[in-house]
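Hi, here's the filled form for the chain we discussed.

Project: internal
Contact: R.S.
Residues: 228
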Amino acid sequence: MERRTLLGTLAAGTLGLGLASHLDGAQASQPAPTDPLADYKPRTFALEAGLPGLSKEMLGEHLALYKGYVTRTNALLREVRAAEAGATAPVQELRRRLGFEFSGMRLHELYFETLRDKAAAPGPAHPLQKAIAAGWGSFDAWWAAFKATCTMTGIGWGALVQDPLTGRLMNAWFQDHENAIPVGTVPLLVVDVWEHAYVKDYGATARAKYVDAIRPLIDWGLVEKRFN
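And the returned structure, exactly as it came back:
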């Protein structure tokens, strides 16, 4: 298997396995299927009316884009199974595409479910906030580093991740959806910084303003539940 193909497949698996064990039960993307080959279903999010700083038009387009990732993930999973059985063309390119689509599906779910009009503030006594303070000195210092990650040149996602082996927190950059992911880490917070997430409201050169608008919309009650 080509190295790039392997990394794409690993990225998809890392996100899928990491998220399954750390999402709160009430927020889990979907119940355990009785059929392990069942199609994924698009999740619903209460965002159609828009949020402060994020228009309903932009969020509506973004939600429609997410549903496209779900549709393409299901189609590719079927194509991969057929190719592995020798019924269709070689599987390598399909696996590369699956890494992109599957990770895009899951990252959008992580992102959308943390957005709230009246979001829970960080809990100063929560172990996650204590870990952030220990690592960066203060919440504000961490946010400055996180914002710098979100506004770096490139297409992808800013993320706060945890290494479950050591408990270490790291800010990370996920290139596209599936590249540059620290393998084995668990995403606690992700912010979509592809152009479609902000250009309609903020223009092509104001990503930093968009990231500032996201800050008060982050539901830290949910993010903190992802921390182990």
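Let me know if anything looks off before we file it.
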